[in-house]
Design a protein that fits this description.
The chain has 681 residues and is α/β, with parallel strands linked by helices. It folds into three domains: 220 residues, Rossmann fold (3-Layer(aba) Sandwich); 171 residues, Dimethylsulfoxide Reductase, domain 2, CATH 3.40.228; 120 residues, Barwin-like endoglucanases. It contains 27 helices and 27 strands. It has a seven-stranded mixed sheet, with helices on one face. It has a six-stranded mixed barrel with strand order 22-26-23-25-24-27. It has a four-stranded parallel sheet with strand order 11-10-9-13, with helices on both faces. β18 and β19 form a beta hairpin. The longest helix is centred in the N-terminal third of the chain and has 19 residues. It is globular, with a radius of gyration of 25 Å. Bound molecules: iron/sulfur cluster. Iron/sulfur cluster binds next to α1.
Length: 681
């Protein structure tokens, strides 16, 4: 018997509306919902491949435990949970609760179970809860919050000038392109800042083809032109900013000709972009993860934030919107005391900890291998494949087997799972009920419910896994054993909605209307109530209070001797439409789109080196080397090479670094490292 249900795709945060037709228990068809307010019928290749994900022959359908001979043995869920409880209890009793870390990866971003996992950590007593925010999104969030109290949302629809800075939504959030395209058809201008001529960059009015890692210098150069040519909003600056005079001193050192030498962007293009952006109000900028994944990424994001402020583009239609955001009841426990150990990374990156309450996962290897600040003995990894997605995979691969206990919750036997003591099969988003909250970037903000529409035999939803663990460890007194629906109802209480009501409205409820320039009544949510160009908070923590530029920790400028040996600037970590970081390479329809990992080399450079398309090469960084094939391109600067991340066959994270990290956030410099290419016979 056929039936059709609707839900929301939970793979990435775009939240596309999905329609699934079943024949009894079998998925027949997956389509987009034509009337969905966010995606309007669109599903990207990953969304369309969900049937393959459900039916994948290599899906784990039972927990598996490693025997003393290193073989995998199927065990029941009860045995598996008991094994986890036994090990984490032993670790707590032997070393203290801080010796256990829990990491929830990209699969848990914005998902309710991540809150439950965090609650578990608070009850267990470990401060070491971490998320994908260790290397994604949080750096720019902090930069904006420290500068003006909120991470704004670009209002593409109503903007006259859109700046996509290290951001390519056609790969990372395709439903957004519909909104951007409509704005461009209306006559809005598009500036793209990207080292690569992406499909989006090719459509831009102005493409600033920047040297990877130098976004901070470019932002200061643009500010130089905007300020020197009086293109800024003087009234706003006088009324609503602190430290503008010190910014003026700083940007004096960044005239376009100097910035051209640093960034490789022509001075005339820097001038043109500054004038176009400042003279096309309202204008909006979205800094992508490429801004963050640099050793100066936090300050670069600050400089971009300041540019939006001084041009008067904050909290206006068509500019940088300040919400609103939905006020749900939290599921995390804020006030419970754990033992007095600091989280890993709390001493090195105190502001990161202050803004997230999370440990910094990028330095877990150090804690495991060197016992700093104390030994880490156990980990539970949920919805993440650190070996392919964290920096310096070589060090991590050395570290993870030294743990006394590693549990991985995943759909598949990933590279990280192979190192585990136990692997627990997670159900997909189709088997979870989850709230979705559409960003104001897609129009009036809505809250809705992605309904549980499927039951995956042998698998457990992440929510149920954490709930089981809480029950077995005996934390019921701290963590009520809520099922997902009851937990969702608790979260909805402050806005007087229930899951039942959301079920009746599959396109969700518009929860608020936007108010422009809310700061005029309540000030900015900063210590001074103003936009803090000069941040006393940063100064207090020993960081530069101004958005200073520093060249990448490893670059032709900062380490010329190293660059003589490793002459290419290596950039990695860009999103790909068919995959999500390390996920889905085993889906046949997605694999056909991108069959193998390739290093992109400019065709002129390749000719000089005697390289042809498809030649096998070794790419070496100061840390390691990987083997892969060459793809010729003229979309990048001849001094730059690109390697995608997430491939087990050629794991680029063996080349990346976990020592020189952004000093404020601990983010890695994945977008700008040094490498060389060695031709193989
Ligand atoms: S863009 Fe693709 S992966 Fe993301 S929600 Fe939409 S269909 Fe799912």
């Amino acid at each position: 018997m056929k039936s059709t249900v609707t839900t929301t795709c939970g793979i990435c945060s775009a939240g596309c509306g999905m329609k699934i037709t079943f024949d009894m228990e079998r998925i027949l068809k997956i389509e987009g919902q034509a009337d969905h307010p966010v995606s309007r019928g669109y599903l990207c290749p990953k969304g369309r491949a969900v049937k393959e994900l459900i039916e994948a022959p290599d899906r784990l359908k039972s927990p598996v435990k490693k025997t003393s001979q290193g073989q995998w043995q199927e065990v029941s869920w009860r045995e598996a949970i008991d094994f986890v409880v036994q090990n984490i209890t032993r670790i707590k009793n032997s070393y203290g609760p801080e010796a256990l870390a829990v990491h929830v990866g990209q699969a848990g971003v914005g998902k309710q179970f991540a809150h439950y996992a965090e609650r578990f950590c608070r009850a267990y007593g470990t401060p070491n809860f971490s998320t994908a925010g260790s290397h994604c999104h949080i750096s720019k969030m902090m930069a904006n919050v420290i500068t003006y109290g909120v991470l704004p949302i670009p209002d593409y629809t109503n903007s006259n000038c859109i700046v996509l800075w290290g951001y390519n939504p056609s790969s990372s959030c395709p439903p957004l392109m519909d909104f951007i395209n409509k704005a461009l058809l209306r006559g809005a201008r598009l500036i793209v800042v990207d080292p690569k001529k992406t499909a989006t960059a090719k459509r831009a009015n102005l493409h600033l083809q920047i040297r990877p890692g130098t976004g901070g210098a470019l932002a200061l150069g643009l500010l130089h032109v905007i300020v020197k040519e009086n293109l800024y909003d003087q009234k706003f600056v006088e009324s609503w900013t602190t430290g503008f005079d010190r910014l003026v001193d700083l940007i004096t050192e960044y005239p376009p000709e100097t910035v051209e030498k640093i960034t490789w962007v022509k001075a005339e293009n820097i001038r043109e972009a500054a004038v176009l952006y400042a003279q096309s109000p309202p204008a909006c900028i979205y800094p992508g993860i490429a801004v963050e994944l640099n050793t100066n990424g936090f300050q670069a994001a600050r400089a971009i934030a300041i540019m939006q402020a001084v041009t008067g583009n904050l909290d206006i239609t068509g500019g940088a919107l300040f919400g609103p955001s939905v006020k749900l009841a939290p599921l995390t426990l804020k006030n419970i005391k754990w033992n007095n150990k600091t989280a890993i990374g709390q001493n090195e990156y105190p502001l990161f900890f202050k803004h997230t309450n999370n440990a910094q996962a990028n330095i877990y290897s150090r804690a495991i291998l060197e016992g700093k600040p104390y030994p880490l003995k156990g980990m539970i990894v949920s919805g993440s494949n650190p070996l392919l997605t964290w920096p310096n995979a070589g060090k991590l691969k050395e570290a993870l087997p030294r743990l006394e206990f590693l549990a991985v919750v995943d759909h598949f036997m990933t590279d990280t799972a192979r190192l585990a003591d136990i692997v627990l099969p997670a159900a997909t988003f189709l088997s979870r009920g989850e709230l979705w909250d559409s960003s104001p970037v897609f129009g009036p903000p809505r809250i809705g419910l992605a309904e549980k529409v499927y039951r995956e035999e042998g698998c457990m939803s992440d929510w149920d896994f954490w709930r089981e663990l809480v029950e077995k460890v005996g934390y019921k007194y701290i963590l009520p054993l809520l099922d997902e629906e009851s937990a969702t109802n608790c979260r909805l209480k402050p806005i007087s909605l229930t899951t039942e009501e959301l079920k009746q409205n599959p396109h969700g409820f518009v929860y608020a209307e936007r108010i422009e320039k809310s700061y005029e009544t309540s000030g900015f949510k900063t210590p001074t109530g103003k936009v803090e160009i000069y941040s006393e908070e940063l100064e207090k923590y020993g960081y530069d209070p101004l958005p200073v530029y520093k060249d990448p920790a490893e670059s032709p400028e900062s380490t010329p001797e190293k660059a003589a040996e490793y002459p290419f600037v290596l950039s990695t970590g860009a999103r790909n439409l068919g995959y999500l970081h390390s996920r889905y390479r085993n889906m046949p329809s997605l694999r056909r789109l991108n069959p193998e990992p390739l290093v992109e080399v400019h065709k002129d450079k390749a000719k000089d080196m005697g390289l042809k398309d498809g030649d096998a090469v070794l790419v070496e960084s100061p840390r390691a080397s990987i083997e892969l094939k060459v793809k010729l391109t003229d979309d990048i600067d001849p001094r730059v090479i690109y390697i995608p991340h997430g491939w087990s066959e050629a794991n680029v994270n063996y080349l990346t670094d976990s020592e020189d990290l952004d000093p404020v956030t601990g983010f890695p410099g994945d977008r700008s490292l040094l490498a060389r290419i060695v031709k193989m016979n």
